[in-house]
From TrEMBL:
<dbReference type="InterPro" id="IPR000719">
    <property type="entry name" value="Prot_kinase_dom"/>
</dbReference>
<dbReference type="Pfam" id="PF07714">
    <property type="entry name" value="PK_Tyr_Ser-Thr"/>
</dbReference>
<dbReference type="InterPro" id="IPR001245">
    <property type="entry name" value="Ser-Thr/Tyr_kinase_cat_dom"/>
</dbReference>
<dbReference type="GO" id="GO:0016020">
    <property type="term" value="C:membrane"/>
</dbReference>
<dbReference type="InterPro" id="IPR011009">
    <property type="entry name" value="Kinase-like_dom_sf"/>
</dbReference>
<dbReference type="GO" id="GO:0005524">
    <property type="term" value="F:ATP binding"/>
</dbReference>
<feature type="domain" description="Protein kinase">
    <location>
        <begin position="1"/>
        <end position="249"/>
    </location>
</feature>
<dbReference type="InterPro" id="IPR051824">
    <property type="entry name" value="LRR_Rcpt-Like_S/T_Kinase"/>
</dbReference>
<protein>
    <submittedName>
        <fullName>Probably inactive leucine-rich repeat receptor-like protein kinase At5g48380</fullName>
    </submittedName>
</protein>
<dbReference type="GO" id="GO:0004672">
    <property type="term" value="F:protein kinase activity"/>
</dbReference>
Length: 262
């Protein structure tokens, strides 16, 4: 959503990010979607929406402040910033994003498709834990036992599998950005060497990551990204399958052993 973001301090000591929507744009529908969907969800890898204001021509959204900004800035602003993102940290980010999308797709009494995932919508807290933001294009499918308190949400009867697979595709793009530092518009399966059994084209991968003992894992992640970005949606994996694969590659497992993390 178009608008300026300000940093603020609230009485309880929290730093907050206040997004002031552009009054010249007709963003009422997006504003309501962000409030009703993100405002009703709580997960460790979603950015907390803690308040809003709608008065006359003013529309404000108040989020918990994320001191490390968005992932896009770290990957694409300067080489020095990108160098701080070593392979384990990039995989940690990928695992967190996959975990959140898995929970959104099959979180119990609701199913949510984000529809707008990108490195710009992935915020990073002080520990570089990823937080997905920008839910203004999201859709939620109702369940028979859905709580009545969610009745204000933009709910549809069901989400067909192609809706979920759009999120899978976008996750594949994010994963490639993490591995190559190429902009999303530069990425496609045909433009990268994703089918080879070796690094026949190592220039596709961020040079900072190569030769550090992670080359085999990098190739596995490139192959996973390729599967996520397959042209035919039903050939792409589910987000649960993606999460399990990324977690296995990274050797990061939730302590509960449950891949659908609350």
């Amino acid at each position: 959503m178009l608008g300026k973001v300000y940093k603020g301090l609230v009485p309880n000591g929290w730093n907050v990010a206040i997004k002031r929507l552009d009054a010249s744009e007709n963003l009422e529908e997006e504003f309501v979607s962000e409030i009703t969907i993100l405002g009703s969800l709580r997960h460790q890898n979603l950015v907390p929406l803690i308040g809003f204001c709608a008065a006359r021509d003013e529309q404000l959204l108040v989020y918990k402040y994320m001191p490390n900004g968005n992932l896009h800035e770290w990957l694409h602003t300067t080489d020095d910033k990108a160098k701080l993102l070593d392979f384990p940290l990039r995989v940690k980010i990928a695992v967190g994003v996959a975990k959140a999308l898995t929970w959104l797709h099959d979180g119990g009494n609701f199913h949510v498709v984000h529809s707008n995932l990108s490195t710009q919508s992935i915020l990073l807290d002080e520990n570089f834990d990823p937080k997905i933001s920008n839910f203004w294009e999201a859709t939620i499918a109702k369940q028979n036992d859905m709580n009545s308190s969610m009745s204000l949400l933009p709910i549809v009867e069901y989400l067909d599998f192609t809706s979920y697979k759009k999120d899978v595709y976008r996750f594949g793009v994010v994963l490639l950005e993490l591995l190559t530092r190429k902009e999303s518009y530069q990425l496609s399966c045909s433009s990268l060497n994703l089918s080879s059994s070796s690094f026949a084209s190592p220039l596709d991968v961020d040079k900072v990551l190569l030769g550090q003992g992670f080359d085999a894992k990098i190739l596995q992640l490139l192959e996973l990204a390729s599967n996520c970005m397959k042209f035919i949606p039903n050939q792409r994996p589910t987000m649960l399958q993606v999460y399990l694969t990324v977690a296995a590659i990274s050797r990061i497992h939730d302590q509960t052993g449950d891949p659908e993390i609350q």
